[in-house]
Design brief:
Blueprint lengths: L1 E4 L10 E4 L9 E11 L1 H8 L18 E9 L12 E5 L13 E5 L3 E3 L6 H4 L3 H14 L6 E5 L4 H12 L3 E6 L4 H7 L3 E4 L4 H8 L4 E6 L11 E10 L11 E5 L8 H12 L7 E6 L3 H10 L5 E5 L4
Parallel strand pairs: 8-9, 8-11, 9-10, 11-12, 12-13, 14-15
Antiparallel strand pairs: 1-2, 3-4, 3-6, 3-15, 4-5, 5-7
Helix pairs in contact: 3-4, 3-7
Length: about 325
């Protein structure tokens, strides 16, 4: 099969088309013919080598990608799944394993990591759902703010942030969010109750709306210590990429590691159902041929992309 991968870490230019053996599904696994794979910031982290330790010394080539949409191509022996060959599906893929990630013609994943595509949704849009929405879902579950509580979301215009806003609203929470002037209406349309101007002093603006402090923060912008003052004593902050403080006043730091719940089928199915019901907005910035992955990574690094860039694997 053809994949988009790298043999050495570096900038976008290290991504290229490579030939790999077709993967064979084992017991409990499903093979998917990939039609679309979304481009996420975590893919650029893998490509850069920042997280190379997670390969445990395994040599390349390495294939990025955590979000795939396509069609079930094969089902491994003794696999208990309602899925059948030909079903349109979406999957979350763990790219640090020996089979690599979603930037490939075929991926093999545990059946628990696969759910049917939301009805009426095309492959590119569907590929933008699971990884970011599951990260937001896990962050909210770790914060465990009861209905009627207040959370703040930073980076609310991004994919993780947008899903965090919508999932928090579906949980019955009051949602404060940040945005640039250009993105204020976008974030309001996603359902935020109050939108403040983003920036290093955003904690002050959140406190102006919640004088006693918010119950929790979903920190998509990775502001870390800059947003902690917005949190009430004993509240929490859900963080991506492993920041661990320091914090005080009894504030708890909750690192969010989406790989740990990649086989949580019930959570994935619920997110799929919410997307089908229109509770989650699937946003595609652009669809590009898979062999233009390097350009997609450059565009993502330049900033300002709203929604996800998606790689088209139907003509690889």
């Amino acid at each position: 099969m053809r994949a988009i991968g790298l043999t050495e870490f570096g900038g976008p230019e290290v991504l290229r088309v490579i030939e790999l053996p077709d993967p064979v599904p084992g017991s409990g696994e499903v093979r998917i013919r990939v039609h679309a794979a979304s481009v996420n910031p975590t893919d650029t982290v893998l490509r850069s080598g920042t997280t190379s330790v997670r390969f445990n010394g395994r040599p390349g080539p390495y294939v990025p990608g955590m979000d795939a949409a396509g069609v079930v191509d094969a089902i491994g022996p003794d696999t208990d799944t309602p899925l059948r060959q030909g079903d349109a599906v979406i999957a979350i893929v763990r790219p640090y394993g020996p089979r690599g990630g979603a930037y490939a013609e075929f991926v093999v994943v545990p059946a628990e990591s696969v759910v049917p595509i939301p009805s009426g949704v095309g492959f590119p849009a569907a590929s933008t759902l699971l990884m970011n929405a599951l990260t937001a879902r896990l962050g909210l579950d770790l914060l465990a703010v009861p209905a009627g509580g207040t959370v703040a979301v930073t980076g609310a215009a991004g994919a993780f942030g947008g899903y965090a806003v919508q999932l928090a609203k579906s949980d019955g929470l009051r949602v404060l969010a940040d945005a640039s002037a250009a993105d204020t209406q976008l974030v309001a349309d996603l359902g935020a109750d109050e939108v403040v101007r983003r920036g290093d002093d955003v904690a002050d603006r959140f406190r102006a709306l919640a004088p006693d402090g918010v119950d929790g923060v979903l920190d998509g912008a990775m502001l870390h210590e800059l947003v902690v003052p917005a949190i009430r004593d004993g509240g929490g902050i859900a963080v991506i990429r492993g920041w661990d403080g320091p914090v005080d006043r009894g504030v708890r730091v909750h690192p969010v590691w989406v790989n740990e719940v990649a086989t949580d089928h019930a959570r994935l199915l619920r997110l799929r159902d919410q997307a089908e019901a229109g509770e989650l907005t699937l946003r595609v910035a652009d669809v590009v041929p898979a062999d233009q992955a390097a350009q997609a990574h450059r565009r993502l690094a330049e900033g300002g992309v709203r929604g996800r860039l998606v790689l088209d694997f139907t003509s690889v």
